[in-house]
Amino acid sequence: MKRPLPVFHALAAALLVAGCSSYRPAPAAFHEVLDQPYILGAGDRVRVTVFEQEGLTNTYAVDQSGYIAFPLVGSVPARGHTAQQVEAALAAKLREGFLRDPDVSVEVDRYRPIFVMGEVGAAGQYSYVPGLTAHQAVAIAGGFTPRANQANVDITRTINGKVMTGRVLTSDPLLPGDTVFVRERLF
Question: Is residue 11 part of a domain?
Fold first, then answer.
């Protein structure tokens, strides 16, 4: 009769170890990417100003394939490029028979959204604003539920074309396109 108790303890220990095995600390790239220039992606919207050319000055969306459709020159690649790189590409294309010396400026008008899931009041898609932290994103999503782990969250982020997930403190900054997952606390 006393045999089931050690088996029960062994099973409980195995479950605890299995529960801890999903811990994924944030890779170093999570924090390194914060100090680099912003890379455009699908869902971003950019404001292009071509000085003295009001017909070309407008807001353009980066489509799903990563391009912006620009008058006169057609599709211009934007995904994976900085605003300054898109600026240079547009100026080069406009210089090819359309304008003698184009003066082009590109700035981000609207960032792609973030997603908040898990133990929050209203999971969903939300607008990104520069400087947004995980804690602020949770607040936008209706706050933590009573069962939520409020110390840290899991963030899924695309860095250099690779999707990475890591656990960070709620005070860590977010980037456009991030997915924040608030886990349930154990006790």
Answer: no
